[in-house]
Design a protein that fits this description.
homodimer; 320 residues; alpha/beta; inorganic pyrophosphatase (n-terminal core); Diaminopimelate Epimerase, Chain A, domain 1; 6-stranded parallel β-sheet; 6-stranded mixed β-sheet; 11 helices; 38% helix; globular
Chain lengths: 320, 320
C-alpha cells in the first residue's frame, strides 16, 4: 500500500525530485493530459526537467496543451503518475514502469495504492483540481499553458460542470483561474471539447440514436456497437468511444446500456444510471465494477442472451 | 430612457416597493423564470407580496422552481421586469404593461431603456447573476428555492458554463451558492436541462442532423425546419425550438444556419458563428440583427433563392 501524504508533503516531493517521468493513463483524456503537461510546466518553473509518458498518442484536439519545445531525452530519476487508479492504466507502459512509481496524484476512490507515496482526493472533480492545490502550495506563478491545462482537465472530467463531481471547490478554482487569465478563450476550449464532432462521429451518434432499443417501459435503453454497423457506415471504431451517455438522453430512462461487440461472442457492457439505480452493484454480479452511476462488465453469449441477462438484472434492480 | 441605477439603489427600491408584479419574457427560459421566482421569494422574505407574470406558460421542466403556495390576487402597486431587453418581450402582456414598468433588471446590452429605473449589466452571464448581487446587498438569507432558481438561471443562460459569458464572477457566484446549499442536486438540474430529451425532440435532432446540408467547403451548414418535415415525422414544432446549435457541431463549420419555414414563402433564419464571423452584420443586411455569434433575420423567396442569398453573403464574409 502507498504511504498517504498530504499536499505540503507532495509539494516537498516535487521540490526535491529530479529528471521526472510523468505517467498518464492509456487512452488519454483531458484530465490526465492537463495533469501531465501542467505538472511538466510547473516542474520546469522549479528548474527541473521532466517528460510526460503515455501508452497512446494524445488526440489532436488536446495538442494545444502541449509545450512548444521538443522533449529532451534523459533517464528517469523520479517516476510520478497522475490520474491513474492502478498500474493497468499505464497500458503498454505497465511492464516497464510497474512497481517503480514514487508518487501518485489521483482522485479515484478505487486507487489501489500501487505507488510508494500517494495523494488521493476522492471528492475532487479531477486530478487537475488536486494538482491546482498542489501548485498553489508550491507558490509558482501560473503560465497561460498551465491555466489552459487545468481548465481543460476540470471541464472535461465534469462534463463541463454538469456532473455531481463539480462542487463548490471546482467552481471556486475555475473562478480563480479565469480571474488570473481572462484572455484565455474558455468558450473555444469548450466548443472543441463538447460541441465539435467529426463527420464520422456525427454519423455514429445519429446511427446509435436511431437504432436505440427501448425496454422495461422505457426505463432502460440499449445501443449496440457492432463491427457490422461500423463497417456498413464507414465509422471509425474510435468514434464509437464515449457514446455511453447517449442512452441516458431519452426522458424517463433509468439505466442506459451500451454493448460493444468483441471477439468470440464476448461483449463489453457499459451501464449508466440516471439517478436512482446503483449500476456498480449490477455489474459486480457479472464480475465487473465501477462507480454507482457508471460501471461496466463483460458478458459472453449471443446478442439475444446478453440482452436478456442484462434486462433481467436491471428489472430486478428497478423493482427492488 | 431609463434612469440607470446601481445595486444599492435597486436594493433600496425593492425594500420600499409594495404589491409588485414581476414581468418575465414570453417563451420563458431558465434565466427569466429563475429571476422572476427568486425575486418573488426574496420579496416575500422582505415581507412583501408579489406575483410573477408571463405571456406563456412555464415549461414543465422548470416547475420545480415555482413556489408551493398559490399566488394571491391583488392589484399592482410596483411593476418590475427581469431579463427583458424591450417591451415586445412581454408578448401578449405588452399592451397591458407597456410604459408602466418602474424597475428593470437585465443583462442584455440591447436593453432599450423602456423602464423608469434600470440596472443593466451587459457583462453578466444572466439576469440571475445580476440578481444574486442585489440579493446579497439586501442581506437576505437564501432559501433552497432561491438557490435553485439562481443556479438554474445561470447554468441555462451559459449553456452549462460553456459560453464566453461564463466568467470568473459566474463561477465564483456558483461556488458560493454550492457552498451554502451542498444538498441541492445540481447534477440532476443539469441532467434535466441539458441531457434529457423527449422522444419527439430526439427524432427532431436526428432528422436535422441526417438532413444537414454542407456548403462552402464545409464551412457553412444548413438545417431546414419545414412544416412537411414536422408532419411527416410526427414532430411537435415546439421540439424544433433551440436546434440552432446543431449546425455548429460538424468540425470545420464557421457559420451554422437554421431556416424555419413560415407562411407565404417567408423564412425565419437563425445564424450561429463558431468564432470568427460576425453574423449580426450579415443579418443586418437583411433587416435583422442580434449578437456577434447569434443573429437572425427573415427572408422571402423560394427555398432555393433563400439558400443562395445566404450562401452568397456568408461566402463574402468568409473571404473578407
Amino acid at each position: 500500500m502507498s504511504k498517504q501524504i498530504e499536499i505540503p508533503a507532495v509539494a516537498e516531493f516535487l521540490r526535491n525530485c529530479e529528471d521526472a517521468y510523468i505517467l498518464i493513463h492509456m487512452n488519454p483524456d483531458g484530465d490526465c493530459i492537463g495533469s501531465g503537461y501542467s505538472l511538466q510546466a510547473v516542474l520546469k518553473l522549479l528548474g527541473k526537467r521532466s517528460k510526460v509518458l503515455c501508452a497512446d498518442p494524445v488526440p489532436e484536439r488536446f495538442h494545444f496543451l502541449l509545450p512548444e519545445e521538443p522533449e529532451e531525452e534523459f533517464p528517469a530519476k523520479s517516476i510520478i503518475s497522475v490520474d491513474c487508479a492502478d498500474e493497468s492504466r499505464f497500458g503498454d507502459l505497465q511492464e516497464q514502469y510497474a512497481g517503480r512509481v514514487a508518487l501518485c496524484v489521483d482522485h479515484h476512490i478505487s486507487n489501489d495504492g500501487f505507488a510508494e507515496y500517494a495523494h488521493v482526493e476522492p471528492d475532487a472533480s479531477s486530478a487537475c483540481e488536486v494538482l491546482y492545490k498542489i501548485y498553489r502550495e508550491l507558490g509558482v506563478k501560473f503560465t497561460k499553458q498551465i491555466a489552459e491545462c487545468l481548465y481543460t482537465g476540470i471541464a472535461t472530467d465534469t462534463g463541463c460542470f454538469k456532473f455531481s463531481s463539480a462542487g463548490a471547490d471546482t467552481h471556486r478554482i475555475v473562478a480563480e483561474i479565469m480571474r488570473e487569465f481572462p484572455e484565455i478563450r474558455y468558450d473555444l476550449i469548450n466548443r472543441n471539447m463538447f460541441v465539435v464532432k467529426s463527420p464520422s462521429r456525427l454519423r455514429a451518434e445519429m446511427l446509435m440514436l436511431s437504432q436505440m432499443e427501448y425496454h422495461l417501459d422505457g426505463k432502460c435503453t440499449i445501443i449496440w456497437e457492432t463491427k457490422a454497423i461500423c463497417e456498413e457506415n464507414q465509422i471509425d471504431p474510435k468514434d464509437m468511444e464515449g457514446l455511453t451517455s447517449l442512452p441516458l438522453q431519452p426522458e424517463g430512462v433509468e439505466v442506459g446500456i451500451t454493448i460493444r461487440e468483441q471477439d468470440d461472442n464476448w461483449y463489453r457492457v457499459s451501464l449508466r444510471s440516471a439517478d436512482s439505480i446503483n449500476v456498480s452493484e449490477i455489474c459486480a454480479k457479472f464480475g465487473g465494477g465501477g462507480h454507482v452511476k457508471a460501471a461496466g462488465c463483460r458478458l459472453q453469449g449471443t446478442s439475444g442472451e446478453v440482452r436478456q441477462i442484462l434486462l433481467n438484472a436491471i428489472a430486478e434492480a428497478l423493482n427492488a
